[in-house]
């Protein structure tokens, strides 16, 4: 499921554009499959078809796209993925795959804060809602700096991932000359 790209295009893409170009075909295929059959089995099958690099990119990009929107979305989506330990672990493992320790550490801190405030350990126990930060000022004070840091380091994370893609394109792209 490698992205097919001409060498000239690959070499000319800026970091964020490369980050998105390697993700877009994956998410489109994923959405197409989920429209046909939205099942856990189909999700697992799709994920198994990806290279290790694509897996790392896919899970982080999904998280990033949601979490970057606002402090409320950062809080909610972090809690949602933490409530799914396999997915949360895959996001963190993906960051390690890219050698991205700064963002990894931030996710560890986020997990620690959410657990301190009785964050969900499974989807069955998921009662997090987007109003929580308005209703719990202590929680809000703990999450706000994490979101600020997320915003500060996100571009560097994207740059590091894009650099990884450039030097290890065989995980992501089939170059056509």
UniProtKB/TrEMBL annotation:
It comes from the Bacteria. This is DUF4375 domain-containing protein.
């Amino acid at each position: 499921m490698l992205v097919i790209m001409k060498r000239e295009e690959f070499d000319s893409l800026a970091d964020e554009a490369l980050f998105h170009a390697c993700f877009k075909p994956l998410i489109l295929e994923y959405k197409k499959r989920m429209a046909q059959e939205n099942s856990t089995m189909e999700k697992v099958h799709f994920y198994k078809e990806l290279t290790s690099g694509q897996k790392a990119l896919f899970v982080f990009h999904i998280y990033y796209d949601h979490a970057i929107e606002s402090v409320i979305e950062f809080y909610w989506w972090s809690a949602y993925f933490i409530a799914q330990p396999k997915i949360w672990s895959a996001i963190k493992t993906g960051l390690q795959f890219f050698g991205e320790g700064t963002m990894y550490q931030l996710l560890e801190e986020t997990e620690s804060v959410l657990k301190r405030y009785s964050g969900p350990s499974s989807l069955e126990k998921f009662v997090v809602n987007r109003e929580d930060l308005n209703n719990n000022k202590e929680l809000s004070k703990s999450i706000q700096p994490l979101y600020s840091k997320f915003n500060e380091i996100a571009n560097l994370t994207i740059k590091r991932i894009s650099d990884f893609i450039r030097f290890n394109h065989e995980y992501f792209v089939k170059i056509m000359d």
